[in-house]
Amino acid sequence: MYTPVNRSFIDAGSVMQAEKHLFATTPLLGSILRKRAVERLFSSRSREGAVALAGAVEQGHPEADAIFHRLLLLQHSSQPVMHSALWNYWKASRFEELLKRMHASATLQPVLLQALEAMPENDWGNGLLFMLWSLLDRDDIAETIDAKGRHAPALEMDALFGLVRGNPGRYLDLEDPDYSIFEKAWLAASGAQRQRISTTVLKSQDPRLVAAYDHAVKEGHDPQLVIEAFKLCGDHDALLDRLHGLPFTSALEVIAFWQEGGGRPKTPSKKAVVEAAVALYHELAGLLPDSPSSAPPGTKDIFSFWTERYHSDELLQQDLSSPDPFRRAGAVFSAALRGLIPRNRMQEIALNGTWPEKLALQYLFTVPDASSRQEDVCWLQPQENIVAAILTTRLPGSLEESSLLDERVHAGAGAAQLQRKLLHLLRLLQGYFLRGLITVDSNDDATEKNAVETEELTDVEW
Predict the structure, then answer these.
(1) pLDDT band at residue 249, thresholds of 50, 70 and 90?
(2) Which one, 73, 287, 319, 372, has the greatest CB density within 10 A?
(3) For the residues of 108-120, what is the DSSP string, one character each?
(4) Higher model confidence: residue 286 or residue 390?
């Protein structure tokens, strides 16, 4: 009488037996037992076999290199169970073993590319392909994706790929009203990839892409890049709004751009503000002191030198911990400019760093708070000079700051005309950004619940 055989039970038992011999060390027979175990696991075509072999590679199996090479050559079309189990196993550890071996051996690069090209064209296969491109950031993998027109199942990964590769259409074809897709793509990008995204944004001249970059990236980018991008795409309405939060000196540069280029916002109220600002700037230009157009012969502006020097993230990270304070200062400047240094770290350097490091941060950001300890370098204290205090005001400033500056201007002498023009221009921009300002105080004069008190600011000129 014929009795059916439980094939799955035999396979499972065979796999378990093979696992026992994977690391056999029996004299003379050890090598033979190991090889038989490897062959049995490969021929099992099972999930357990794939996991056991991948684990053996991680544990330093004597034939780990050969096993790993054969695992890479597994095809989903012929061994779907084993193939899926293997790649899911690697994915669970973010491909740690795979990446380690890829970096250690150039001969494995084409084998990996072959394996990725053969990935099934479904969400699972595409997800693996894009994840490995993101981790390895290799052009040959990207070209494989482009050649077959593949798309990542996650929208943010698909957007990241396009933005890094200079193809903004992958993002612009998506609906992203709150810029959350762009933000997730930015957070997933490496430092080098973020630089390429910034370049893509700058070259795109697309107002929607610039707005997404500015909104989503927030403090993690170079604000000057956003300004330049808005200039290129001709979005003067957004350009005016982007002055919010920037030093007044940056606003003057943009107003000079409006004066020279003639572009204006489309919104009537914004256009009126820009027209008035340009008229004031024209009057102001004749009062400003001349400044050298370039560094003296044989020298280079230090900030330009730092910007040119740190194209490499590796060099930047190395110099951040250099014993040379000027190298640290240059690295801090470039890292802060590209959004690669945490804000709490910058605050700590601004308070306790060496004076070259403080110089780098003071050039990019606001001056120390008035309550901070006295600095040992006098030019780090622009509050001592009225013009410097106006120029370093971060828009929109506050009514209190404006009133204080007004008092100092009217009490001063000498360059009073220049000071008043600067203050007038500052107030014009403040009037735009602080329109509709609501303040809350502890006044309890109201006789009715939920009453709102209104007050006309008669002593403030906008």
Answers:
(1) confident
(2) 319
(3) GHHHHHHHHHTS-
(4) 390
